[in-house]
Amino acid sequence: MLHHWSTQSFNENCSEEDFELSEKKKSLKRVDDMAKEGYVPVSFGYKLMTVKEIEELEGQEENEDYKIMLLSELIYLCTFGMENPIRPKVPEDVQLIKYGKKKSGDSKEGGE
User: Fold this and answer.
1) For a FRET experiment, which of 17, 32, 98, 106 has its CA 20 to 30 Å from that of 47?
2) Closest CA to 5 of 56, 69, 66, 49
């Protein structure tokens, strides 16, 4: 979603420039490649707003214009991939959350 709402980005010289569709597609390709390699892609962006603009939005969280105002004209910064390795104890942890104890191998689902 960040790519969709971003209108500006930075080039290799750290100068702000339009975030054109072709650049968005290249960036999204890199995001897709990260995900295929098992990374969790995390993107960052921001929006410049005056204090007055922020104050005008106060209390309007339920208004559809609130979302549009906050999400329009974002400045895309970067995307990085976080490692999220498979942890060997995940099945046991899920059992502890679901059943409150380690489930024995011979009981049936929901039987405890």
Assistant:
1) 32
2) 69
